[in-house]
Amino acid sequence: MNASSKAPKIGLALGSGASRGWSHIGVLKALLAADIEPDIICGTSVGAMVGASYAAGNLEALEKWVLGSNRGDVLSFFNFRMARTAFVDIERFNWFLHHFVAAEHVQIDELGKVFAAVCTNLENGQEVWLTQGAAADAVRASMAMPGLFPPEHNNERWLVDGGLVNPVPISTCRALGAEIVIGVNLNSDRLSSRKPKNSEAAAPQVDGFLGNLKKQTMDYSNAFFPHAEEVDKPPGLFSTISMSLNIFQDQITRNRLQADPADLMISPKVGDIRMLDFQRADDAIAEGYSRAQSVLSELHRLIDAH
User: Fold this and answer.
1) Which of 136, 181, 203, 211: disulfide with 11, CB 3.0–4.6 Å?
2) What predicted TM-score, i.e. pTM, was given to this entire model?
3) Is 161 noted as a catalytic residue in this protein?
4) Which residue is catalytic, options 16, 19, 45, 188?
5) 97/263 Cα distance (integer angstroms)
6) What number of other Cβ atoms are within 10 A of residue 69's Cβ?
7) How, if at all, do strands 10-14 and 157-161 pair?
8) Closest Cα to residue 192, out of 277, 271, 274, 284?
9) From the centroid of its chain, how far is CA 95?
10) How many other β-carbons are positioned within 10 Å of the β-carbon of residue 37?
11) Mind listing the pLDDT tens digit for each residue in 127-180?
């Protein structure tokens, strides 16, 4: 559609939301299937990751990986030992970024799309837009959720997750020249009380060294993936972080969207997908695709009117 010089520049603002972010893959697939190709991609946190993967031509490879991943694959990105600054195994995460998002040498200005990753300056709370430099480094900075990722050092400043200041970067798209902005908000609905899908049955106990090792692994796993039926137990560390960030980002998103609304908002209903439910990629992608399809007629109307 954007082959015509008269076509308006379309910006896509991909919001933060951890594992809910796989919805962005479905949104992009639906837009591309309708011959709507965004000119400007701005992403916050996981939105930056999916957006950069698309701009670098790796979206299909990313989708294939996430659909084939499981809980063990997710846990492999975390250190079993309490790290001083973060839990994420940065070396393995870099391997993932360079294979499925953007190769180590790829610069943002080489992506073929106008791209920005939104971050937060840890020292003063200012919003930072990364539009130059290595694409993978920008994504890592935008995803640096405090407590999970270490802050990213960039130009004599420490950067963390952009969701702290701009969860759905509509303003960034407009500033970079978008005439029509499509926003994707992953935090529009509250966490559902229904039991998550793909819950796993308890494994039989094994005595001895292997049993102890397995128990430690399960305890570690449950810290990231608590069982929904344990309603009488207090939330674990990562559940508390996740729910707190959901509340925080929901309030920021509401305020930002009220001041600068998108021309078209896509809001996948993924409230029952928790922060680290990355194994539910198929649900998230399908929901993103469905929600994007449901607004295509309105999007075509906006493009024609423009």
Assistant:
1) 181
2) 0.81
3) yes
4) 45
5) 31
6) 14
7) unpaired
8) 271
9) 17
10) 16
11) 999 999 999 999 999 999 887 888 999 999 999 999 999 999 999 999 999 999
